[in-house]
From TrEMBL:
Molecular function GO labels: tRNA (guanosine(9)-N1)-methyltransferase activity; tRNA binding
E.C. no: 2.1.1.221
Organism: Carex littledalei
Catalytic activity: guanosine(9) in tRNA + S-adenosyl-L-methionine = N(1)-methylguanosine(9) in tRNA + S-adenosyl-L-homocysteine + H(+)
CDD domains linked to this entry: SPOUT_Trm10-like (cd18089)
Protein name, entry field: tRNA (guanine(9)-N(1))-methyltransferase
Keyword Protein transport set for record: no
Length: 373
């Protein structure tokens, strides 16, 4: 909304301190407010990051102290026994992880032959900012990790994977080893012989997806755009003369904002539906609580959830949430970014684990995680 004081000008100093010795630049009151808000946000973010770093360092230090105390309180025989049993636990965990890894490879290879085909259309690279491309690459990483974990994975394609988008993806640890179809051509060329089976998933379609057809190839638009390009995927499907469909969200849920979801949320829904054939549970698992109807006008922090029709979920205006989504953060019920990176680069992970087991002081813990002291 236009600020009544829009016409008045002031210096760029966020505090309105006109004694700032730096060269001054006139800013409208609205711009000043925005600047202040941005600075407050950056300061909050830095504080949060520093606090988290401190908390982790303290936790690590406490573990180290506890371990040392424990070791020192033991006789040499007890100490040797404890180290031995930790070593065994570590080996057991590695064996289990290797087995899981083999199973995962088997599942993904099988999916490449018989799995439901899903395409992530990466042809919109030139429409996005560098941050949005980064966010999308993280969402793709989550998709791949979820697919690898699934007992019933899809046959996943990345099409139009070129330029900045490809460069970003290549920075993901282990990306070159992913079991996925990487295609530089757009899907309309790469899958031209199956054009009649292509179905673009788009919130703007009039068709509601009731079931998944194993012959169909479902396309998800690789876009992080806060719905700046409203209708872009629907228009694309129309121009190309391919089918389109929207998820049946409205039949099962009331959303607090729009029904436009992020790429990884849509992909999670597909995966969940393939496993359960139950849309409701698929939506509940993949769509975070705060995006489901949580009382109209309910505020999230300082600002309200965007409610305009078809606003992208990334249009949720609370700063932290906006940032989370921009960074591709996956929400409730999902894995952490760290876990995701670990899963997607597990070839390297396996190798480094092998090396770690040679260390006598490796400590296996109950939940299978390991600390090197
Ligand atoms: C962040 S959205 C992109 C929104 C973009 N403005 C558009 O017009 O598609 C990412 C992709 O997820 C898929 N998607 C999101 N919400 C959907 C819904 N409710 N039904 C079907 N597909 C959806 C679409 O393929 C969409 O392109």
């Amino acid at each position: 909304m236009a600020d009544p004081g829009e016409e008045s000008h002031a210096t760029a100093s966020p505090e309105g301190d006109n004694t700032d010795p730096k060269p001054t630049q006139t800013l409208t009151k609205t711009a000043q407010k925005k600047l202040l808000k941005l600075e407050r946000y950056a300061a909050r973010k830095a504080e949060k990051k520093a606090a988290e770093k401190q908390r982790k360092a303290e936790k690590k230090e406490k573990r180290r102290r506890d371990w040392n105390e424990k070791i020192e309180s033991l006789s040499p025989e007890e100490k040797a026994k404890l180290l031995e049993s930790n070593k065994e636990a570590t080996w057991e965990r590695i064996k289990r992880e290797k087995e899981e890894h083999r199973n995962k490879i088997e599942r993904l290879n099988k999916a490449a032959e018989v799995g439901q085909k899903v395409v992530l259309d990466l042809d919109f690279g030139n429409r996005m900012t560098a941050n949005e491309i980064q966010s999308l690459s993280q969402q793709i990483m989550y998709c791949y990790a979820a697919n690898s974990r699934s007992t019933n994975p899809t046959h996943l394609w990345l099409t139009g994977c070129t330029g900045e988008m490809e460069a970003r993806l290549k920075k993901i640890p282990g990306f070159d080893k992913w079991i996925i179809e990487k295609e530089t051509r757009p899907y309309i060329e790469a899958l031209n012989d199956q054009k009649e089976n292509l179905v673009y998933l788009t919130a703007d379609s009039e068709n509601v997806l009731e079931e998944l057809d194993s012959k169909s190839i479902y396309i998800i638009g690789g876009l992080v755009d806060r719905n700046r390009f409203k209708g872009i995927t629907m228009d694309k499907a129309k121009e190309q003369g391919i089918k389109s469909a929207k998820l049946p969200i409205g039949n099962y849920l009331k959303m607090s904002s729009s029904q436009v979801l992020t790429v990884n949320q849509v992909f999670d829904i597909m995966l969940n539906f393939i496993e359960t054939r139950d849309w409701k549970s698929a939506f509940f698992k993949a769509i975070p609580q705060r995006k489901r109807d949580n009382a109209e006008g309910e505020t999230l922090g300082e600002e309200k959830v965007a409610t305009q029709d078809a606003a992208d979920v990334v249009a949720v205006t609370k700063e932290d949430e906006k940032e989370d989504l921009e960074e591709g953060e996956v929400e409730e019920g999902s894995v952490s970014k760290k876990q995701c990176i670990r899963e997607t680069k597990d070839e390297e992970h396996m190798a480094s684990e092998d090396n770690n087991t040679t260390e006598d002081n490796s400590l296996g813990t109950d939940n299978g995680s390991k600390e090197l002291l």
